[in-house]
């Protein structure tokens, strides 16, 4: 049986291109998840690995979809070979259990790990440059503007937290933080 595995790192990324490629390749069962590749505990990947048996084939679009590092790729593929499972990486071809196949796997895994490391490095460099800006704020942007918080705090003078939350949509915990922040600055 041909099993497909697709993964993206964040919930905002789209799996559709990978899923379509796996369908086009004739995968009968496709597992997919939105889960960071830096974690070893990927539930759907573990599930597909547990289903694979002798004669089956695991298909992925790219090597970095199932391996976190060169060592991880080599160990995972080696374990699959020992079970009699074939591995097909669409942008690389069928990975063969031969000295040449293992060499190509090692080289391609090294490039995938290098590429990931370079992305991390560029992200950190960009963040360091952004931190030099006066208006830099780390983390996600605030959900509510200052004037909305200010208005909610005024409403809080004559209403309960629940009532203000119902009127403004601003949670009690956000209001308490804003209130404490305001007290600290006075």
Describe the structure.
By secondary structure, this protein is an alpha/beta fold. The protein is built from seven helices and five strands. It has helices spanning 16-24, 43-51, 70-82, 99-131, 146-156, 161-168, 172-185, and strands at residues 2-8, 29-34, 57-60, 86-89, 93-95. Strands 2-1-3-4-5 form a five-stranded mixed beta sheet, sandwiched between helices. Helix 3 (70-82) packs antiparallel against helix 4 and helix 5 runs antiparallel to helix 6. The chain is elongated. The protein starts with a strand and ends with a helix.
Features:
186 residues; alpha/beta; five-stranded mixed beta sheet; 7 helices; elongated
Q: Mean pLDDT, rounded to whole units?
A: 90
What structural class do helix, strand and pairing data support? alpha/beta
Name the assembly state. Answer: single chain
- Low-confidence stretches at least 5 residues in length (pLDDT < 50)? none
Helix content bin = 40-55%
Q: Please tally the β strands and state the result.
A: 5
Q: How many separate helices?
A: 7
Estimated share of beta-strand residues: 5-15%
Radius of gyration, Cα only, in angstroms?
Answer: 25 Å
Q: Give the ordered list of helices and strands.
A: EHEHEHEEHHHH
Shape descriptor: elongated
| Biggest sheet: strand arrangement | 2-1-3-4-5
Span between N and C termini?
A: 69 Å
Q: Report the biggest beta sheet as strand number plus sense, adding barrel if it closes.
A: 5 strands, mixed
């Amino acid at each position: 049986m041909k099993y497909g595995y697709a993964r993206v790192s964040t919930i905002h990324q789209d799996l559709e291109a990978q899923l379509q490629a796996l369908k086009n390749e004739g995968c009968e069962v496709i597992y997919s998840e939105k889960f960071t590749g830096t974690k070893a505990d990927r539930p759907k990947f573990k599930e597909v690995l547990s289903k694979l048996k002798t004669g089956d084939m695991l298909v992925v679009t790219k090597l970095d979809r199932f391996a976190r590092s060169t060592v991880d790729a080599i160990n995972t593929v080696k374990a699959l070979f020992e079970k009699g499972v074939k591995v097909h990486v669409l942008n690389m071809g069928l990975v063969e259990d031969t000295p040449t196949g293992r060499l190509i796997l090692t080289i391609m895994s090294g490039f995938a790990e290098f590429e990931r490391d370079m992305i991390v490095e560029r992200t950190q460099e960009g963040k360091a440059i952004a931190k030099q800006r006066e208006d830099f704020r780390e983390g996600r942007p605030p959900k509510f503007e200052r004037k909305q918080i200010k208005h909610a705090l005024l409403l809080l003078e004559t209403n309960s937290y629940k009532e203000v939350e119902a009127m403004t949509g601003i949670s009690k915990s956000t209001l308490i933080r804003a209130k404490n922040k305001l007290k600290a600055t006075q």
